[in-house]
Amino acid sequence: MVCLISIIGSGRVGTAIAFLCVSNALDDVLLLNRTKDKAIGESLDIVNAIPSTSKFSIHGTDDYSKLAGSDIVVITASTGVYMKDRTENMDSQVTMIKEIAEKIKHNCPSAIILVISNPLDVLTYFFQRETKFSRFKVIGIASSLDSSRFRYFISEKLSVPQSSISNALVLGEHGDSLVPIFSGVSVGGKAILSMIDNDEKDSLISSVRNYWRKLRSYKSRSQFGIAKNAYDVIDAIINSKELSIPVSVVLEGEFGEKDVCIGVPVKITSKGIAEIKDTKLDESERESFKISAQTIRNNIQSIVQ
User: Fold this and answer.
1) pLDDT at residue 74, rounded to an integer
2) What is the CATH number assigned to the segment(s) 4-140?
């Protein structure tokens, strides 16, 4: 069965996701951008990456009615570039996500939604609230990226290959209160907490939280890491695979939290989120997760009020 992957936003992240979907012959792709020529131009470039054996294609548009029939909609759109904090443009971003939510609800109400735009947890929350879509079909993609960064820093710190690191999980906000879960990490079968001291642990936490700032000192913004993480979720949905990763989802009592959208471990299937997975946290991790949830809740309430 041919599906349709629609991507709203034809900037660096949106086009990188589109490129991965098209070059891997995953399915038909629609690039939608407020500037029509931008969407068409990027699609004309990416179309040349289609394998000769592929039956799929890509097109660009600014017409939201073309979303009709979309199986997956990925939201990467932005109203501006943040420089110091992901919440800098929160008001305008929330206004944008509400407008997009209304158009998606009208044109493709059965689609599974992947939110990439920042502030990730806040926007995922408002999209779900505006549309009333099942919370299991509105998925914020970011904690898996943070987990990739956590694994990278462990690898660099201990001079080991990333393949030797297991369960490097980051939960919580996609922001300065994110929570790396050290208690479950093993390196070559050995608990990481037996290999580092508290100062080294704090340094790793700071490195993960400030990764994007360091990257910004070299290039304008990240694109490939988040694109690959988003692609993996799309692939799992399209090809009926099971994928266990952390994502941002509205909680209704899980992890002791309600009415907040936050990064937690889940199982992704063709239906979206099939399960929110419980995971063991130590006391400090539980407290940090609680603080992170309240940070997101405060941001949500600042908009609501």
Assistant:
1) 98
2) 3.40.50.720
